[in-house]
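2024-03-11 09:14:02 DEBUG pipeline.ingest accepted 1 chain
2024-03-11 09:14:02 DEBUG pipeline.ingest length=457
2024-03-11 09:14:03 DEBUG pipeline.predict start
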Amino acid sequence: MSTNKQLRIISPNGHLGFAPTKEESFKLGAATKPDYYCCDSGSDDIGPAPLGADKSVGMYDWQVHDLELMLLAAREQGVPMIIGSSGDTGSNSRVDMYVQIIKDLAKKHSLANFKLAYFYSEVDKEYVRGKIRDGVQIEGLDGRSSLTLSELDKTDRIVAVAGVHPFIKALDMGADVIIGGRSSDAAIFAAPAIREGYPEHLSYYLGKVLECASFCAEPYAAKESVIGTISHEDVKVTAMHPDQRCTVASVAGHAMYERSNPFFEYFAGGMLDMTNCHYEQYDEKTCRITGPEFVPIDGKIKVKLEGAGKVGEKYIGIAGIRDPYSIKHIDKVIEWSKNQVAEMAAGREYFIDYKIFGKDGVMGEMEPVKDFKSHELCVVVEGVAETKELAEQVTLMATRQIFYARLPEVKGTAGTASFVVDEMLRCTPAYEWTLNHVIPVDDPLELFDVRMIEVGN
């Protein structure tokens, strides 16, 4: 057990590089000399396309900005910096990109030599195929059935979601900076606390409350820094922005907002039970939390796998409608458009979707429009097909046919759509989640190879 009374970790951004970290609150937090600088850089909330296409959704310059803030502060203070799920997805190419950014920043600022650890999270499909053929059950999550070879064949890229173990190993190796592949959001923060001897139940709760940075504070403000403090008895979280506070309501609300059962969070080897959490206002800007429990799960450790597979090429079209009669009968307009696409693309596979946005609300495809009071609508058309040519054709046809819809009681060329985008917008290809499963492993480091290099001027 650590003899230190407390450990302090700064979380500057709930998703590094997704939008730039706000510098004022970060500098206020850095001035308090935290023990660790930790940040999550990824999420599956962004959908399967970035993983499948192996690209980032954050701008490169924003990612450099956030890494630079953290690196300079951590190196000046001489404390560790930890990044998980590098480059949004934690794929190997994103880890390599972040490692190179750290090298470039070290050279730019003439930093003294330091140890940089990194690990990859991508999993070879053949490794997974071998497990299935050996009779290993790779269980599905969120209602999915166990993984089959046919589902695996549809997959272009797989990442394993790391727990605390590769981060702890890197710290044991003497790392000053850690660049991680795909990781559990909370594990990035829990790892240093567990390594330094703080209780697992409080360490995992610390990670849970810090992972989204200022989302646990009020009033709402993103990309602001917060500091989590763990002792052997409690966790405290403090907002750094001058106008934000971590309150009982904001912290409890954040801890419970994103799960079907809001009181439980699962990790490799155990489960965080927040049923008996107690929240109290410690001071004006700080909430104190006690009472979480960590319940070990018997049996093998299971690691989550995320996989994405390409569905087809994708285009977007946009139509604006101001004609009151067309707005009132928008369901018939969409039905006409769909039928015209079906006639044009008969015998070929495609997917078409309509999202209808109006000033009084948002509707999904073909939902009733009774009492819809907007004076204008925006229809976003999404077309997907195996080839770029067919995807563009079905999207263009669907968008233009909104203008040409044949409605009863419309006489002459009154027109329906006031504006149609004829130039289709080509998008990243469409992908789907093919894996949301857990695979049993004998060693929690089995899928994560931790490497170390020395970086400096």
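2024-03-11 09:14:41 DEBUG pipeline.report Confidence is low (pLDDT under 50) at residues 361-366.
2024-03-11 09:14:41 DEBUG pipeline.predict end
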